[in-house]
Design a protein that fits this description.
single chain, 450 residues, Non-ribosomal Peptide Synthetase Peptidyl Carrier Protein, Chain A, Gyrase A, domain 2, Elongation Factor Tu (Ef-tu), domain 3, six-stranded antiparallel beta barrel, 17 strands, 24% strand
């Protein structure tokens, strides 16, 4: 009878092989001129990732059925969330069992207390809608005369192909190609505008502005003159279209459009890093009280900055969308599957991390789920040895489980593996690696009819 080490090694080998074959199927079926390895394992195949549509899906279904001997029916369309979820489906079809530790005995779920404010917002986020106060978001306006080639030196992504009305979710890069900030870049009639939510302090913001200036770009900080709010949730689109008109329904993902409402001049853009509809409104700050009274207040739940950040962290963990606050020194963007949201063109390699912070073994961001409480700093063990640690964690009322973002050695960062969980106090439990997103949001299920 094979021991645990052999079982896990066989599972990892099978998963690696099928993953490579699925990536090749996508490249062949879509006729993509890219290296299959560039397709992120958890990058969404529809929408913000590879941008598949229903016609693409039919071609890929045919390719998968032939190459893997599958029969895919309409009810199986949920498997097209990502490469990892397709691999999950194929392994299950082939009867490949997910390995468990030899002494694995899942504990009974611990009772969870009254929901916190962040957990209440999480449920509103997933079941209805939430109005987010983004008053701390920095806004920078680039000079109209800038050269796109200069902008491309400090902003990752395909800046050159941006048309007026386009939005790019991307990175600000440092002098050595390191990630300084995850930002939204909008192109409007007045030029390029940068929106940055996660600057930790004034010094971090000043460093990024200085880096932009060193690239020869003229930029103006006009944060004091603008306000930004977001309307997020499965009901966001219906609520806004009822008030702003049918143009909302025609607004594509990562597109922006000028609109007016009750005398307010709005730049409305469609984003979404939590799996639900997300619309952001940028307007002159002096018009915010009018918009708040006539549009925002009647919509319902309003989240202020601190509560919104905590709820956003939970939703980000559920979808495993990366934010700067979730990155740690030595974990490279390529290894952290940043393609999930960013699709950055710049290919980072081991040399982009300073030598003193470079990990001795490559690590990848991995979503984990547990019935016992997870905390940042918990160590993950496999076959008796440490393989990673949990960096951020929280209780998801949408899943009724604890979820965490872990950094795991790349060789063992595969969905289906179950890690032993240890903390400083020596408490033990288990956490299972999962494909991200951890579940299908209501918006996705409504759109895909699954």
């Amino acid at each position: 009878m094979p021991d645990a080490k052999d079982t896990i090694a066989r599972y990892v080998s099978q998963r690696e092989d099928i993953t490579q074959r699925v990536r090749q199927c996508l490249v062949d079926g879509l006729r993509l001129e890219i290296d299959p390895a560039q397709i992120g394992l958890d990058a969404p195949l529809f929408g913000s990732g590879l941008g598949l549509d229903s016609v693409d899906a039919l071609g890929i279904v045919a390719t998968l059925e032939v190459r893997f001997g599958l029969e895919i029916v309409d009810g199986d369309m949920a498997l097209f969330r990502s490469v990892n979820t397709i691999v999950d489906f194929i392994l299950a079809h082939q009867g490949v069992a997910q390995p468990s530790p030899p002494d694995f005995h899942p504990p009974a779920p611990a009772p969870h207390g009254a929901p916190t404010t962040a957990e209440q917002l999480n449920l509103a986020w997933r079941q209805g809608l939430v109005v987010l106060d983004l008053s701390q978001t920095r806004t920078l306006q680039f000079a109209r005369s800038i050269e796109v080639s200069d902008l491309a030196r400090c902003v990752a992504g395909n800046v050159r192909d941006m048309a007026v009305g386009d939005v790019l979710h991307t990175l600000i890069l440092g002098d050595k190609g390191d990630v300084q900030e995850i930002i939204w870049l909008l192109r409007t009639e007045a030029g390029y505008r940068l929106l940055a939510e996660d600057f930790g302090d004034a010094a971090a913001f000043a460093a990024t502005v200085a880096n932009i200036t060193r690239a020869g770009l003229s930029v103006t900080d006009d944060t004091d003159r603008h306000a930004q709010v977001a309307i997020v949730g499965p009901e966001a689109q219906d609520a806004l279209s009822a008030r702003l008109g049918p143009d909302i329904l025609r607004l594509a993902y990562l597109q922006a459009q000028r609109m007016t409402y009750d005398g307010c001049d709005l730049l409305v853009s469609r984003h979404g890093d939590s799996g639900e509809f997300e619309y952001r409104i940028l307007l002159p700050r002096e018009q915010l009280p009018v918009l708040d009274r006539s549009l925002l207040a009647p919509l319902g739940v309003t989240a202020r900055e601190a509560d919104a950040q905590a709820a956003s962290m939970l939703c980000a963990l559920e979808m495993k969308s990366m934010r700067t606050s979730l990155l740690v020194p030595g974990v490279l963007p390529r290894l952290a599957d940043l393609q999930w949201m960013l699709r950055a063109e710049l290919q980072h390699n081991a040399n982009t991390a300073p030598p003193e912070s470079r990990p001795s073994r490559a690590r990848r961001a991995t979503a984990v789920v547990s019935e016992t409480e997870l905390c940042g700093g918990n160590e993950l063990f496999l076959l008796g040895g440490p393989v990673g640690e949990i960096r951020r964690a929280g209780f998801s009322p949408s899943l009724s489980h604890w979820i965490g973002l872990a950094y795991v050695e790349e060789a063992w960062a595969w969905p289906g593996l179950i890690y032993e969980l240890r903390s400083e106090g020596g408490a033990r439990g288990y956490a299972g690696a999962r494909s991200a997103p951890l579940f299908l949001t209501r918006t996705v299920t409504d759109n895909l009819n699954v």
